[in-house]
Amino acid sequence: MGALPLASQAARYTSNRYNGLRRRELISRLLRWSWALAALAVVGLTVSAAAGQPAQSSGRLPGDLVPVWRTIHHSYDWIFKNASHIHYSQAQYTGMEQYLKESQDKCIKHFQNQIHSSNNTILTSEKYLQKNTAHITSSRRHTVHCKIQNLRAVRVQDAVMAQHALPIAYENYNAKLKLLEYWPAQRAKVAAEIRAGTYKDWKWGNIQDIGERVIYPGQHTDIKRFAPAVHQLFSQHMLPPLMKDPQIVHYVKTVAYRIAAHSDLHIPLHVYVLDSKTINAFSIGGGYLFVYRGLLGAVQDEDELAGVIGHETAHIVCRHSFRKMRESQIASLAMDAAQFAGIFLTGGVSSIGAYYLEQYAMEYGYEGLGMLINLKLLGVSRKYELEADHLGMQYAWNAGYDPSGFIRLFSWMANKLGYVDSLDWFYDHPPFYERMVRSEEQIMYLPKKPDEVINTSAFVKMKKELARYMANRKEAVPPIPKHLVIEPGCGAPPKHHYKMSHMIETLCGTANNPGKVD
Q: Distance between CA 23 and CA 230 in Å, rounded?
């Protein structure tokens, strides 16, 4: 990719400009600069620094690829059910793969160019201030400050699109394309193994022993290891506030405890419902599960929520927090301000660190931000995601749920909600091809139960209570931390007409977009 990751650009620029300053001054200025980057999170996603058009595609979609394009806009479950009846030529598959690559590259290049343009404009403005600081009026200085502040905010959103939203969206498309081409043969192979009984030799195929299995030894050691980190998350206000609606909290805990009781978890489960619109859930070793309010709004059925909770429970069972820390050579999730500044300035946080810096700083403040950066530094292991999918579906099934709920949630997030609204979810749960195939294989292999739960009256009541709860509250914009100073009175950065719920192709577009498939 042509441009440096945002964090690396920040590192180069900041280290050059502030070389020689004392450490405290360095950190203070870094945080002030970062807050300006965060500002756009309040007003939504901005596509361009100017009121320009969305990125153009790499060219017109050839006519023989239009049917393929429309097919990959169907949901994952639809493709799994119908792939055997859809027949495209090898030339169509190859052509579509190349078209997606060219479209992705050109769209990403568009946003990289905008980042470069913003960088140049910011640098020019800062040089102007430095050269004319003794002569310009306070009004003119304020105007230039606001211009710089808004461009930094726009630059962040362009970087999020180029480095995360677009790659995630195209990974979805490529996964569906591979499913169309390869799933029919793979499905026949799995069906033959099930008929022959050899599926029982699969890893963790002894589903009758769930609860007695030791998937990865040492679960109990993670309690002492991670309890201080969880305490710090709350004591330093690094997470959204806990939901105080007892009906909603009780419901989530009931589902979570049901999953845990039918899993390989051998330690107590602690469940926290976070009052944030973020669509996600995560877990920390030692039995700590966090579910965001936004996820409760996104799931359509209880088995979808059960699938997510099963997945996160599996992360705890497999001790993925500990294993990722060990692999990343991170001794502790805690990090002081000097360590945080050093990692950020040297580009160690990489691109995702830059994104989460703005996201968490805006929503939760800067207190103890280093721990959250450290959590994200651990990264997403595709191997561990596959393990959590595999076991999580077993746990949901063992608890009496339809195990396909987790995949249906993926389909809905990608096809109905859109990749931008779902960015946080898809970053932590990447939709790669192998993941979808292994999950569908697991669904085929788990014996069908006559009374599998898809939805419950308790879920319906929770949804009604959540709607009532949301009607009586507004999404609060957290106050700016006192130790951060930004230019007051600038107003919001420029908006684009792109809507957050739109699909990603309305951003990148194709010159003759054949349209979505509902």
A: 28
pLDDT in tens, 60-113: 788 999 999 999 988 888 899 999 999 999 999 999 999 999 988 988 898 899
Contact call for residues 46 and 118 (beta carbons, < 8 A): no
356: part of which helix (H) or strand (E)?
Answer: helix 350-364
234 Cβ contact list (under 8 Å, min separation 6): none
Eight-state DSSP code of residue 72: T
Residue predicted with more confidence, 342 or 157: 157
Residues contacting 149, CB < 8 A, separation 6+: 36, 39, 486, 487, 490, 493
- Chain segment 230-255, per-residue pLDDT in tens: 887 787 766 788 999 999 999 999 99
Cα angle vertex 368, ends 226, 485, to 5°? 170
Q: Outline where 85-165 has alpha helix (H).
A: 90-132, 138-160
Top-confidence residue, 18 or 91:
91
User: Which residue type does 36 have?
Assistant: A
DSSP 3-state helix, strand, coil percentages of the chain (rounded to 5)? 60, 5, 35
**3-class state of residue 211 by DSSP:** coil
Identify the pLDDT of residue 495.
53
Min mean pLDDT across 181-185, 356-360, 383-387, 416-420 is at 356-360
Q: Which two tokens stand for residue 447?
A: 């014996």
**DSSP reduced 3-state for 101:** helix
**Cα–Cα separations (whole angstroms), residue 407 to 314, 414, 456, 457, 517:** 16, 11, 19, 22, 18
Instruction: Check residue 414 and give its pLDDT.
Output: 67
Task: Quote the mean pLDDT of the chain.
Answer: 74
- Report the distance separating Cα 461 and Cα 473, nearest Å: 19
Helix (H) or strand (E) holding 273: strand 270-274
Ordered DSSP codes for 283-316: EETTTEEEEEHHHHHH-SSHHHHHHHHHHHHHHH
Rounded-to-integer distance, Cα 270 and Cα 63, Å: 54
Tell me the three state secondary structure of residue 281.
Answer: strand
